[in-house]
Every structure is written in structure tokens, then in C-alpha cells.
Design goal:
Layout lengths: L2 H11 L9 E5 L6 H7 L4 E6 L1 H17 L3 E6 L12 H10 L6 E6 L1 H14 L3 E5 L11 E6 L2 E6 L5 E5 H5 L3 H12 L1 H15 L5 H16 L1 H5 L3 H21 L8 H15 L7 H22 L7 H20 L3 H11 L12 H10 L9 H8 L15
Parallel strand pairs: 1-8, 2-3, 2-4, 4-5, 5-8
Antiparallel strand pairs: 6-7
This protein binds zinc ion.
Length: 403
Amino acid sequence: MNFNEEIQLLMKEWEMENIVLPEIFVEKNIMEQIPAYLTKNDFKNVVLAVDDNTWQATGDRLATLLTDGGIEVKVVRLHETEHQQVIADEKTLVQLLIETEQNTDLIIAVGSGTIHDIVRFAGFKMNIPFLSVPTAASVDGFTSKGAPLILKGVKQTIQTASPIAVFADLKVLTEAPPELTAAGFGDILGKYTSLLDWKISDWVAEEPYNERAASLTKQSLEQCMENVDKIARHDEAGVEVLIRALIESGIVMLVLDFSRPASGGEHHLSHYWEMDMLDKNLKQHLHGAKVGVTTTIIIDVYKQFANQWQLNELDPKYKQNIEKHWSKIVEEINNLPSPEILQETLRKLGGPDTPQALRITKELVQESLNNAQHLRDRCTGLLLINLHKKDDIPYPIGELSLK
Ligand SMILES: [Zn+2]
């Protein structure tokens, strides 16, 4: 069964048959087809949401293509911080709301994850659909509805809208800086622990779970792991594998209407670091670059605890289910690849492999391991470990170190 057939079945199982899936176009030079697509769908006045980088890389050319195609284009250059970064916070959201004219019938997100999240939210609030033009295979959120925003300095994910279509131009994606492709791979690696955390939440906290969604997300992960060398070359064939995996993972989240299969303890650690850096007004790291590293840490922590955890101190709320499923939990944890293997894979991609490579201190890692589970009301291995440990989770916990 191919992905689309599986998704149709998932929509039935999850009672989401009314959901409209985005049209997906992954091809070299597919951007040139956007004007015809807009004309066919009767879009006449569009806003292009860009930042300085994506304007230079892609936006400028797309604006010309659209204008030549008889479409009215307004460019909104999103506010950048002193670190030349766009942040999905109140200031930038309001900027897009203000600069989008009343007669706008479509917003086009030209960029990576953050620009998509800003557009997704603003479009949803103004009831204007949006089109996705990823400029890098850097994140798995293009096709989902969740917009992770920084509101009053705190990271929160709000369910908004998915794009009507994605135009993933392989020419654009292969020309993206290699660290962005490495970050996309890091976001994919996170599925090792997010899928396990989702399973644990089903066993222990009886949270909603779907086997088909989990196995589709696992396929995205496996396809990337089987093609590591190809992806590491950042060429068309490799980038295509990665962008398809990222898009498909996003579609699974879209159908479920939550991000569980692709976001567990590793994302909570990453969000914790992100908020700390915002607090200190430091330049932000790429989302997937952090997730790649936090995945190695979470795996290290889980593997240690699977073999050392004292089962006689269980919280009464979870005691029965933990005891019932304990051997399966341990087995799943033992089946995870070692953190060292994942670090090696990250290095192959040219991405950071340790907190140190991200200039994250040992103290912050330690603090996040003890507190990040409070960021979301979700059952994860990290939450259970924190509930049942006697002392703070030590870091480095296993063989991983900051050396
Ligand atoms: Zn992610």
C-alpha cells in the first residue's frame, strides 16, 4: 500500500474523513508551475511572506514569476532580530496581520519552519488560505496544522491551518545551506524517541494512540536512515528522500490533529533550550539541529533508566500500567540505536552532535532534563523518570559526555 492509500485509511480510522489534505508537488523547478496553479484556483492577490535570506534565495524569483503570470504580489519582509533571525512571536505575527491587505486571497510562505508558522497562524486568523514553498528540507512541520509560537516568551503550539498545497522545488532545496538539510535530518531522528514516548503514553497513561499513524511515521524515519549517505551528499536524490519523509510526517500530524508521533521528550528538551536562549537574547539554533542532539540525550537517559529504575517507588496513578507493560517498555528502549551511532549519523550529515557543539552548557542540559516535561501536558518517558527518580537526573548520565 502506498502512502496516500494508508493516509486514506488513517483518516477513516481516526474519523477525520472531512479533512482536506494539501496537494503535494515535489519536483525540480516545480516553482515555475505556481502561477498556473494560482490562476487555475482563481487566486489574484497574494502576499509573499519572506525574510532576507529566502527573498534572495527564492522569493525574488517567485515574485517575478507571479507578476509575469498576471498575479498581484505584495511582499512582506518579516521582522528580523538583531541576530538576523525571524521569531514566531507577537511582534512578527502582528506585522504580517497589519501588512496583509483586505483583498489578499492567498499568503505564500517562502521559507523554512518559522516563516510557515507565522503564515499559518496569521492566515488562519484572517481566514486566508496559505501555500507552502519550503526553501530547505529543514523541519517536518510544513504540512501540519500546529504552529509553535513564542507567546509572552513561552513556547506554545496552537492548532491553526495546513497549507492548501506544498511546492517543494528540488532545485531550491538542494541549493539550501547544508546545515538546514542536516537539521531536517535531526528532526527525523527525533522520531526514535517521539514514537516510543507515544507508545509509552498509550501503555501507561492510556492516551489516544493509532498503530497506522505510528508505523507511517516510522517509515519516514526508516527511509531516511536507509539513505543517510545519499542525504549526506545533499544532492537531488537525497534531498528528495528527506523532504518526502518530512512532508509525510507532517501529514500524519495533520490527520491526527496533534503532533504526538513526531514530538516527545526530545522536543520538550529542545523547546526548553530554545526558551532559555530567547531569555538570554542569544541567536537561536535550528529546530532540527537541537532535536538531533536532544534525541541522543533522551536515548542515553532512557537506556540508563531501563536498567536501573527502582520499580517499588511507583506513582499510584501509573503503577498498575507501568508494572503491566514494564518488560515491553524495556524491550523497546533496548531496541533503540545507541546514542553514539546517532551522533555519528549527525556528524555524517554535517550537523551538530553534542550540546557543546550547540554551545549549550552542561548545566542547562541538566536543568532541562529535570524540568522540560512540564512544558507539555503529555506522558513521556522523561515525565515518568522525573516522577519516580529520587534525585535529579544526572548529566552526563551514560557514556555520553560533553567532551
Ligand atoms: Zn520537530
